[in-house]
Amino acid sequence: MLDPRLYLVTGDTRGRPLADIVGAAVDGGVTLVQLREKDARPDTLAARYDELSIAIGDTRVPILVNDDADVARTTGSAGVHVGPDDIAPAEARDLLGADALIGWSIHDLAQLGDTENVRASDYLAASPVWATATKTDTTAPLGLAGVAALRRSMPPHVPLVAIGGIDATNAADVIAAGADGIAVVSAICSAADPEAAACELRSTVDDALARRES
User: Fold this and answer.
1) Which Gene Ontology cellular component terms are annotated (predicted)?
2) Cβ neighbourhood burial of 134 (10 Å; 0-12, 13-18, 19+)
3) Which of 36, 48, 93, 202 is catalytic?
């Protein structure tokens, strides 16, 4: 089941084992994990997936693979996250089947006109909300106004996740703008205490969602 409230995308762990970071983050409240290693060989990516699966144990937190639908299929991962330059969500759906979780990064309102791929996606990711050092090849930041515009223009039943420059200081603003969850990299992966960082972020998101719905 998709719960997009606190979505961890893997990144630089400052030399610490990735599995340890992910396990701690899940203990702290992460609800979804994306394994993102753009330059990794398929066999390396598959091995890393196995490590993360062991780390999260029986928590049932889904692990998605970034971009590589073939690795997602062979590992039995929950699904795949793709961007506009990757395999299309509709193609990923054909490859992985109806039960797979498929996410699609959205950089502008024009992408929402691609109804086939919007329908094939379980969630959409507004990317990037703000500039970030994690990814330098991104399009212009959407800002909070962009997040709000996407939410208004999207099918109401499709969850919207926001990513890019988000941390505990601005997560509530992103939720107030219309996001149903936040995706973070360095806010957890680079934190001195990933479990505590995840706990703070999860609390912030939950409180913001409660305020929005009240």
Assistant:
1) cytoplasm
2) buried
3) 36
Total-model pTM: 0.97
Which of 48, 77, 93, 105 does the annotation list as catalytic? 105
Q: What is the pLDDT of residue 14?
A: 96
Q: Is residue 36 marked as binding?
A: yes
What's the pLDDT tens digit per position in 166-202? 999 999 999 999 999 999 999 999 999 999 999 999 9
4-20 pLDDT tens trace: 999 999 999 999 999 99
HSE-CB of 42 using CA atoms within 13 angstroms: 9
- Grouping H, G, I as helix, E, B as strand and the rest as coil, residue 13 is coil
Our answer to whether residue 152 is catalytic in this structure is: no
35 annotated to bind ligand: yes
Going by DSSP bridges, is the β-strand pair 160-163/181-184 parallel, antiparallel, or unpaired? Answer: parallel
Domain boundaries, given as residue ranges, for the chain:
6-213
Place of tokens 């396990």: 23
The question of whether 77 is a catalytic residue gets the answer no
* Dist. CA 43–CA 153, nearest whole Å: 39
Asked if residue 190 belongs to a known ligand binding site, the reply is no
Question: 53, 73, 135, 203: which one is catalytic?
Answer: 135
> Is residue 36 annotated as a catalytic residue, yes or no?
yes
The CATH class of the 6-213 domain is alpha beta
**111 in a labelled binding site:** no
Annotation-wise, does 68 bind a ligand? no
Are the C-beta atoms of residues 5 and 202 closer than 8 Å to each other?
yes
